[in-house]
Amino acid sequence: MHTIELGDGLTASALGYGAMGLAEVYGPAQEDESLATLHHAVDVGVTFLDTADVYGGGSNERLLARLLADRRDEVTLATKFGITTADGDLSTMATRGDAAYVRLACDASLARLGTDVIDLYYLHRRDVRVPVEETVAAMAELVRAGKVRHLGLSEVTATELRQASAVHPIAAVQSEWSLWSRDVERAVVPAAAELGVGFVPYSPLGRGFLTGTLDRAAVAGDWRAGLSRFSGSAFDRNQAVVEGVRGVAAEVGATPAQVALAWLRIRGGQLGLPVVPIPGTRRAARVDENVASLEVRLEPAQLELLDELAGAVVGPRSDHSDPNWVSATRE
Questions:
Q1: What's the pTM?
Q2: Where are the domains of the chain?
Q3: Which SUPFAM superfamilies match (predicted)?
Q4: Of residues 17, 26, 55, 121, which has the active-site annotation?
Q5: Nearest residue to 42 (alpha-carbon basis) of 4, 11, 1, 6
């Protein structure tokens, strides 16, 4: 697989892998199966792996440590800090970004991951009580100490990105971006392009919705069932959007997921910045399907239709009670 340079000299595989789904957020997961999927991803060139300290209360990082024990030199490792919980209870999620916590969180992640350096260390969510410059200055100390190679920010506004970049180079912004979540295109993406910062879209398949494989029963047992886009009449209306994506997929001999990922790759080029999506899956076959998206080509008329479909999505992209949880509410 070819590689892409994000920002600050950080190189990553053209497609990444988001490991959050291996932490049982979508129902029970088998650790050995998850580990096999991770190994398969690296085998086929998906070497940009993304996790976070909050996933599974640290268990996700410990799972990746089993892979890294044998294949650390093959992997570009990204993890995140800044979301706290009370004893792993996700309903109690809050943010923390003070300098002391930055250092503690990094050391804890290094220990769980079983490595001495993190390639890309993200602020997972902005702690609005702490100036972003203070948090990034503490992260920069980690670079100078050799514990971290590059810095990233997740769900920041364009203004916050500029403020952070004045303190230390930022390699990547990670925020939700897909055919059904495009608010970052208004300000954050243009700022990243201006500053030479790469973009790492999370949930590039709309938490699985854009794969065209979900029905109400498939999400009934996990947290997605409570999201506005997966509930009530919104579910049916958004399924109509997916049917439109399915139609484009049929025209190009691809799957809906491959079209959604190809659209992101093309859209990044249109907006002038490198984009490395990080779809997640528990199955090796889905990894192969996602990798094949790199070969999908879309015609202008198809891109125009996909733009129209994106405008028909119903429901907010975030249902979190904290209004600061995503960048769009702070822009």
A1: 0.95
A2: 3-329
A3: NAD(P)-linked oxidoreductase
A4: 55
A5: 1
